[in-house]
Amino acid sequence: MRTPFRFAAALALTGAMVAACSGAASPTPAPSAAPSAAPSIAATPAASPSTAVVPSPSPDPCAPANLKLLTAGTLTIGTDNPAYPPYFAVPASGNAPKPWGLGDPTNGQGFESAVAYAVAAKLGFAKDQVAWTVVPFNNSYAPGKKSFDFYLAQVSYKPERAQTADLSDGYYFVAQSVVALTANPLAKITTISGLKSFKFGAQVGTTAYDTIKNVIQPTTKISVYNDNDAAVKALQARQIDGLVVDLPTAFYVTAAQIVDGKGNPLASIVGQFPVQAGTGAEHFSLVLAKGSSLTSCLNQAIGALKSDGTLDQITKTWLSDKANAPALQP
Q1: What is the value of pTM for the model shown?
Q2: C-alpha–C-alpha distance, residues 242 and 268, integer Å
Q3: Do both 233 and 93 map to the same domain?
Q4: Under a CB-based contact definition with an 8 Å cutoff, are residues 130 and 78 in contact?
Q5: Does residue 72 share a domain with residue 164?
Q6: Residues 294, 259 share a domain
């Protein structure tokens, strides 16, 4: 942030003293003499108002030239590999450039690729000033030196992670969602009120379970499982109609866990619930080195993307429309 200008003015006035001299009287008038010149009033010229001293504005610490980057002039972003859709889109050719598998982080398509380039733009970096590097998920927040300026790969904020790395403000607050087998009538439901008559399951002690209990309020007993894998198996065995999980997990379940022998999905995301943002809400954060000077700048960029509607539009484009995860209506 720049500091406001402050103006100071000083006015100095000097005066001159007027002095007069008289001679002694003479009995005989003396010849007239030319009067001596009286000292000039204000013989010392008045000082002109001094020029205001304007301090230079403090340099913007978030300007590209002032950022402490891994490589001067280049913003280096890390993510995991393979880069899964819908966070990173698969190129039309079907082949991501090496070293990337599946999605291509460098094309600006997919939720997290779009977020990364939007953040870069807010910081003042053009697309050709961004470089990507492969970093395994768990290494992103591990202690030690980083090979990136910031990292994103659906890293949820956790206090223990924040002990070894800086975690930014949330750029995505995790929504809960419903997954159903495509052959189940539940797959065609579009409203929350329409979910009540179906049987649901979730992992015990999770936000997903709370969503079933407090938001769906089903008419049948909720099935509870010790872990999410058991809940997925129950869905596959048709012991429940629907599984409630966070949206990122739903993408994985439908794309990788409930598929046929050829990899074709057998389940779909019925819809997602409105996001419950707030201090304690689960959210994805950008990861930086512990104590990084970039953290406050990234938080400013994220705040600006929220304020101008860019982040909402990116979320709608890649996690609702293109990801086939429509928002459930009341």
Answers
A1: 0.70
A2: 10
A3: no
A4: no
A5: yes
A6: no
Longest dimension (CA), the chain: 143
Intra-chain end-to-end CA distance of the chain, in Å: 42
pLDDT at residue 94 in the model: 86
Q: What pLDDT is attached to residue 51?
A: 60
What residue has token string 């070293």? 99
CB 146 within 8 A of CB 289: yes
Of 172, 164, 170, 123, which Cα lies nearest the Cα of 144?
A: 164
| 134 within domain boundaries | yes
Question: Which regions of the chain are under pLDDT 50?
Answer: 1-47
Q: Rounded CA gap, 214 and 53, in Å?
A: 63
Count the domains in the chain: 2
Pair of tokens at residue 184: 């189940």
246: Cβ contacts below 8 Å, ≥ 6 apart: 174, 175, 176, 177, 207, 208, 282
Residues 161, 163, 168, 169, CA torsion sign: positive
Specify burial of residue 127 (Cβ count, 10 A radius: 0-12, 13-18, 19+).
exposed
The pLDDT of residue 47: 47
Q: What is the DSSP string of 15-61?
A: --------PPP-SSPPPP-PPPPPPPTT-SPPPPPPPP--PPPPP-T
Q: Tell me, what's the pLDDT at 59?
A: 82
Based on the number of CB atoms within 10 Å of its own CB, is 218 exposed (0-12), middle (13-18) or buried (19 or more)? middle
pLDDT at 22: 41
pLDDT value of residue 291: 97
